[in-house]
Amino acid sequence: MKLRIQHHTTYRYTWPVLYSIQHVRLTPQQDNKQRILDWKIKTPAKHHRARDHHGNEVHTFSVNQQHRELSVLSLGHVEIDSLSDGYIPPPKFSLNPLVYTPTTPLTQFSDEMCDFASFVADTHIPFAHRILTLAHAVADRVVYTKGSTTVADSALQAFENGQGVCQDHSHVMLACLRAHRIPARYVSGYFFNPNVEQHDSHAWVEVFDENRQQWLGVDATHKALVQGNHCRLAVAKDFTGASPIRGVRTGGGQESLDVQVMIERVG
Description:
CATH class of the largest domain: Alpha Beta
Distance between the termini: 6 Å
Number of helices: 5
Order of helices and strands: EEEEEHHEHEHEEEEEHEE
Structural class: alpha+beta
Oligomer: single chain
CATH topology of the largest domain: C8orf32 fold
Strand content: 35-45%
Helix content: 10-25%
Largest sheet: 7 strands, antiparallel
Radius of gyration: 18 Å
C-alpha cells in the first residue's frame, strides 16, 4: 500500500518569540516493511539532521529573529507492506529492550493498574493474546473522548478519569506492562482508515516478546494488532521522546497550536 502523507503544524503566539529551538520527529521509519519513496521536511530556518538514541531521525532548527508564528511542513510518500501477525522487522538500530522497562512521569502505575493487568504475566497464555487482551481492556476502561486530556496528562490520570485519546491509551498500556516488567515503548505515527478522512496523527505501543526477540505492535485505540495500516514515525519511552515537534522558546506569551494531517492512498 502506498500512502501520500502531509502533516502541517503551525504555532501562533500572543507576544513575539525572541528565540526558539525545535526538534522535529516527522520522518517515517524505514525497514523492509515500510519504505520512504520520497519525503520532505520544510522548516522556517535551516535544519540539521541527526538520529537520537532511540534511532529516530530528528531535524533540529532554531529561529533567532522575533516571530509570532512558526510552521513546519512534512510531506511525502511511503510504501507499507502488511504484517501478518503484528511483529515488526528487526530495526537496523536498536537499544536493549530493558531500556523500555522503567516507568516515566507519564507512565507511572498504581496498585489498581497492576492488578488490572495481572494476566499479562501469565506465560501459559500466548504472548500476542495477552497483549491484545490488555489493549481491549484499556480501550474499554479509558473511553476514547476527544479533547478530554492534554499532552501533559499521565497514565494514572487517564486511568482514574476513564477518558482519553490514543496518547492516553498508549500511556496506560505502557504503565500496565511496565508494572509487570515487560519492555514496552511508545510509537508515534499515522493510521490509515479507507473509510474515514484522516486529520490527526496517531499513537500506539510496541511490546517486546522475549521468546521471539521481536517487537509486537498493538493499537489499543483500535483494539488491534498493527498489521499494515500504520505508518511509524518515532519510538520512545513515552510521548515526550516521540513527540512530532518539541522545543523551547524565549517569550511568546500564550501559545495556540493548529495541526492539519492528510493521509490518502495512492497505490
